[in-house]
């Protein structure tokens, strides 16, 4: 699964990463846990409620079930222009 | 209402933007413009080497369009222009240019003011300030949020 | 606060004024400018041939200085520029240019807004509109007076 | 005495005029009456309270005594910028 990170997380984890998603990782919440295990230094940032997940240019909730073919983007709070 | 937005990768000349904007007008009497310039120092006073505006390939441009369109719906303006940089911006360079034209100067002032307040909180950017004493990511200030809230119904 | 005013006999380029103003700044973050353009038609809709701004050889310039100085005292702006035409102005030409720079965009917006409201009532000019169907001298409108009153203590 | 007119009055009467002032014309109010006699077409404009007199760049009242060496300027209401 393709994952994109923006802002501070992009600097910490890399702007784009591909992860092998095990069958038990189904939702956005599951995906956060998996990513936190893969990137322990960023685990605090990855668990923040202010970090929003975005699929197909729409913000999705924690229970959104992610298909393996989808790209998930993680947005820290916007800084604005 | 005509509006146009531009997400600019390279430095631009705000005076040239104003010149182009003025050249496209017909009978509007008042034009208000705003230029936002990258500051040379952090809030703490350290020299800034560069500003980095991380952006989203689609949502950032869409957020500029949304703000410009909302300003056009809300105020009696006949033309509106928004230019916003992304990527690396050097201190002293323009980050943002907004221009609004109207037969009524009050509407032009309010539209430009509104666009800036909205952009400061709602534009899809993540800003990092690279200063001599380190880099840090910026979030909207309470004052930005308060300005934004002025326009809520 | 630096401010400068210019009572201009000939047409000027507002974009060039903005360019010059921006070039003189150091660490101001926000610049608001206003351009007022001579309208091509009267309120009644007749084509305007020219606007004539009668002025006083000393008091007109002094009134621009007074307004600019008052804006500087009142708002946290670091630089202010006012250019105003006198004499004959053709439709589509700029009559007035105001620019205000500040570290805080709110102050820059308010200062430019204030200067325009003051100029509209307090600048020493007598304006005549020469339209195809005749000439008439203009007095401030009730709306101009109401805008001016916003700033009274 | 040198008199300057601005705005609408300048078009009606001329921007600059010189008048011989008889001894009984002492104040601004007297001067208005004299000018109204000299320019009957402008007499209504000349008697309006909104028309202000200005001497040495200062607005003066109706009882101001004008010296023959002074220039008196008449300002209709400002139109603003």
UniProtKB/TrEMBL annotation, chains A, D:
One Pfam family here: ThiS
Q: Which InterPro entries match?
A: Beta-grasp_dom_sf, Mopterin_synth/thiamin_S_b, ThiS/MoaD-like
- UniProt name for this protein: MoaD/ThiS family protein
From TrEMBL, chains B, C:
EC number from the UniProt entry: 2.8.1.12
The domain of life is Bacteria
Q: Does the keyword 4Fe-4S apply?
A: no
- Keywords of this protein's UniProt record, alphabetized? Molybdenum cofactor biosynthesis
Q: Which reaction does it catalyse?
A: 2 [molybdopterin-synthase sulfur-carrier protein]-C-terminal-Gly-aminoethanethioate + cyclic pyranopterin phosphate + H2O = molybdopterin + 2 [molybdopterin-synthase sulfur-carrier protein]-C-terminal Gly-Gly + 2 H(+)
Supply the InterPro entries for this chain.
MoaE_sf (IPR036563), Mopterin_biosynth_MoaE (IPR003448)
**What Gene3D superfamilies is this protein classified in?**
Molybdopterin biosynthesis MoaE subunit (3.90.1170.40)
> Which pathway does it serve?
Cofactor biosynthesis; molybdopterin biosynthesis
The question of whether Ribosomal protein is a record keyword is answered with no
Q: Which family does it belong to?
A: Belongs to the MoaE family.
Its assembly, as annotated, is: Heterotetramer of 2 MoaD subunits and 2 MoaE subunits. Also stable as homodimer. The enzyme changes between these two forms during catalysis.
Say what the protein does. Answer: Converts molybdopterin precursor Z into molybdopterin. This requires the incorporation of two sulfur atoms into precursor Z to generate a dithiolene group. The sulfur is provided by MoaD.
Q: What is this protein called?
A: Molybdopterin synthase catalytic subunit
